[in-house]
Amino acid sequence: MDYLSVEEAAVLKNCSARYIRKQCKNGVLPAVIQEHPQNHKPCYQIPVSAFPEPLQARYYQQKRQEMGVMPTPIPAETKPQKPKKKAKAVRQMTIEDCTEAQRQELQVWTEILREWQAGRKGYAKKTDYDKLYVGKCQLEHPDLQISTGILYRKWKAYLEHDLAGMLGIRGGSNKGSSEIPQLVWEAFLWFWLSENQPTVCASYRNTITWTEDFHPELVACIPSERSFRRRIDRDVAEATKILMREGEKAFSDRCMPYIMRMYDQLEPNDVWIADNHTLDIQSLDENGTIHRLYLTAFLDAKSGVITGWNVTESPDSQSTILALRHGILRFGIPKAVYFDNGREFLTHDVGGKGHRTRKSDQNRPEPPTILQRLGIEMHNAIVRNAKAKPIERTFYTVKSQFSKSFSGFCGGTILERPESLKRRIKNKKLPQDYEVRSYLNDWIDGEYNLEEYGGSEAKYRGMSRLDVWNGAIRSVRKAAEAELNLMLMRSTRTQKIKRNGVYITFAGEKIWYMKPEETILRLGEEVYVRYDPADLKTVRLYNTKDQYLFTWELADALMLDYLTSDKVEIANAEQTIRHTRTFVRNQAKGITADLTNAQRIDYLDATIRRAGEARKKHFQIRMPKTIEPVRAGEPLEENHMVSGSEFLPVSIDLKKMQKNAKKRKEE
Question: For 524-533, what is each residue's pLDDT tens digit?
Fold first, then answer.
């Protein structure tokens, strides 16, 4: 489909470009928004089919004149119309029109076709039976000309009650027609629209085989391969071809509309984009091992300047921190960073785990991340959305301009690999790691950052990337190097102080830190640890409110080999333990120093005194005024007493009873 710009449409319609632009904006004139090939700005593109037919004819007439195709055809509305000839009605041949010989031939062919179809049902691959049956018929009817193609044509004519077709009389109603039957066309598309991308020729042959198996009556109607090619160009949309034959990614990259990001309101250091790139260079490490290095880089979204980078043997979160530190020392602290979803970026102490956060960790308290301490917002790209990372184009420049200049260039695929690389690897004539690092530092600042700006803002055309950054920057957030090192320290999750202090996990091993006096007094307290991977001698402890507590040293005196026999090491460890015990005992001695001897009562005495005081003050039984008598329900015995005597309570002497019992036992 042909498209016109706003200016071309204004010339064609003989009006102003402003009027055309207004119609496109209001939706009166259908148009699409595309990127201008020169200034890369969005602009309207109007299809020619959106204009009336006279304007379309005028446009194509101009095109023919420009191309030199003459004479120009007369427009449809001015061309005299010739009276159309009426199509002749084709009279179908009936049985009355046949001669006796033709009737006998029809009867023979009818029997052959019925027998052929009946025997065909018992075969899975019907074409094999067709060949066998043709051989059988050639033996039984040597006077008949018969083949699989003739069988298919006769069967089609039989189903359509076409007696002329069964008799082989040419010139029927479909004479000169090359239309593809719909079922055959759908079968062809089934074979051709495949991600294996078969050729038209192979799909055409498979279609013929499929038709012979399932619809033999249509074999005679199949036109040439060229007819299928013409119909592909005419009826199958380009987007459909790409989607079905090349896959979703190719369809998304080449057919789907894309989001155009506007950089007008963006300033330098507003957003830095980070990613990792595998250098296409085979190099040697200090031990002579052949490997490939990785580049972790930060790119300023406004200017395209590579602000900070780090070359590492394996991309991890520490490489990200080093690259960020390098960029901050050079260009200041950015306001936001744009990461993808790799584990080297989504780490709990760098910027948080993002969508990788587990349900078990959602309510778990986490210490402030490095980005939070620096005041940097973290944004993550949509998963599997490579279009959202402009830094990928930068890495292509690194590959084409930097990596290809090395003798150890290996390419991104096997097709890009130089033939001489195998010989260089065998002879180990490859660059050293330190050479790659040194040359990369010089190339980024000496060439890439000084190259011409290639963004979408036209006002920066002709300027270098660094000039764009210098010209557009308004303010910079800076931090002193000592404070920056403090904010860039790694941190662990919250942990409780144990007998041996606190630990960090480094290179898969636990490293313990302690200070005996402070550790023993704060057992069980929740803290988190900050540490510098480049200096593991000390760590800093913070409470859950992010308040600094202590700086503890490495507890290397307590770390001994399992079968150590070094007396000095054992003596140092024992001395640390004794020092801790002595410190706690001294602390315990001074706790009750202000109490007098009279005040130093034991625990039982304090308990009895407290219970006695409480019994006197609070233990009182209050009887209610209403009393309900309870009786036994039996007659009571009368007490027989001596006249004039008074009732005296009976007392039992238990000690005397025990003494008598003991005496009886001895006797």
Answer: 899 999 988 8
Q: Distances from the Cα of 57 to the Cαs of 48, 63, 64, 66, in angstroms?
A: 10, 10, 10, 14
pTM above 0.85, yes or no: no
Report the pLDDT value the prediction gives residue 174, as an integer from 0 to 100.
Answer: 47
Q: Which residue has the tokens 């204004």?
A: 10
Distance CA 497, CA 520 (A): 9
Q: Per-residue pLDDT tens for 126-135?
A: 888 888 888 8
Domain spans in the chain, listed from the N-terminal domain onward: 3-67, 95-167, 182-254, 271-356+366-472, 489-586
Q: Are 381 and 367 in contact (CB under 8 A)?
A: no
Structure token digits, residue 164: 């002329």
Task: Please enumerate, as own/partner, the contacts of 391-398 that have beta carbons within 8 Å and a separation of 24 or more.
Answer: 391/273, 391/274, 391/275, 391/297, 391/299, 392/275, 394/297, 394/299, 394/304, 394/306, 394/448, 395/275, 395/277, 395/295, 395/297, 397/448, 398/277, 398/279, 398/295, 398/448
DSSP string over 10-61? HHHHTS-HHHHHHHHHHTSS--EEEE-TTT--EEEEEEGGGS-HHHHHHHHH
Q: CA 25, CA 31: separation in Å to the nearest integer? A: 9
Given a contact cutoff of 8 angstroms between Cβ atoms, the answer to whether 137 and 119 are in contact is no
**pLDDT exceeds cutoff 50 at 87:** no
Q: What would be the CATH architecture of the domain defined by 271-356+366-472?
A: 2-Layer Sandwich (3.30)
User: What DSSP state is assigned to residue 402?
Assistant: I
